[in-house]
Design brief:
Elements: H1 3-14, E1 18-23, H2 30-42, E2 47-50, H3 60-70, E3 75-77, E4 91-97, H4 103-120, E5 123-131, H5 139-144, H6 154-166, E6 171-175, H7 186-195, E7 200-203, H8 209-218, E8 222-225, H9 227-230, H10 236-248
Parallel strand pairs: 1-2, 1-8, 2-3, 3-4, 4-5, 5-6, 6-7, 7-8
């Protein structure tokens, strides 16, 4: 199954860069998160990732169902482990943390998850997950027990991304981490984007629409925005991100 992946490709083709919103099921109730997602969609979001570094809530299935009912855009699970799955989602990022050397996140969790994904009928999207140094210790850095790629070494990120493409992965995800002090450098995005032919997702620490515009111009296929949107009751910030990402990106 590639239906959701094909929808992502269509978004990338139809717009200069896609705008994805990260939903954290630990931060809001299912009803509140569904309402938030509906607002973000109205403000210009093209799709949603749902996930958490720890996942303290036990209501993932209920949350995914509520959000899916509220939106028309793709809803994709952004898992932290093999058990973070729901048949109600459209797809799951089948992540391999290729920037680290922790075998649990390179292959062990994937082997555990694969049979369940098949049983659930959930579309897997093979994704190379690459952590980039962000200036502070983020949750994903700590929880993954891996070192991120130095932010001033784009050649290392390029080599990892190309290896992922050669391994047959469908997406590359450059991640600074939730609450990162510094987002992924635009220069790294530019070099990686020019070096590989598969779509490039960039997320973590992007709090300013003007920087999102720079990332889009650098060649990102999708930009993920999370924490900064949650405190905006007027959705003005979401609209600003949507305008910046959609009007000034550059299709690979």
């Amino acid at each position: 199954m590639t239906e959701t992946y094909q929808k992502l490709l269509a978004i990338k083709k139809g717009k200069q860069c896609g705008f994805l919103v990260l939903l954290d099921p630990d931060r809001k109730s299912p009803a509140m998160l569904a309402s938030f997602a509906k607002r973000m969609e109205a403000a210009g979001a093209d799709g949603f990732l749902i996930g958490s570094s720890i996942m303290l809530s036990s209501s993932l299935e209920k949350t995914v169902k509520a959000v899916k009912k509220a939106i028309k855009s793709p809803l994709i699970i952004f898992p932290n482990c093999a058990g973070m799955l729901s048949r109600a989602a459209d797809a799951v990022l089948f992540l391999s943390l290729i920037s680290g050397r922790n075998p649990n996140l390179l292959i062990e969790e994937q082997v555990k998850a694969a049979p369940l994904i098949k049983t659930l009928g959930l579309e897997p999207i093979p994704t190379a997950y690459i952590l980039i140094e962000s200036g502070n210790l983020t949750s994903v850095w700590y929880m993954s027990n891996t070192m991120p790629i130095p932010r001033n070494k784009p050649e290392i990120a390029k080599a990892h991304a190309l290896a992922a493409e050669y391994l047959g992965m469908k997406l590359v995800y450059l991640e600074a981490g939730s609450g990162a002090a510094m987002p992924v450098p635009a220069e790294t995005v530019s070099q990686v984007s020019k070096y590989v032919s598969i779509p490039l997702i960039v997320g973590g620490g992007i709090t300013d629409p003007s920087y999102a515009r720079r990332i889009a111009q650098a060649g990102a296929s999708f930009i993920v925005i999370g924490n900064v949107l949650e405190s905006d009751s007027t959705d003005k910030t979401a609209r600003a991100f949507s305008e910046a990402i959609h009007s000034n990106g550059k299709i690979k």
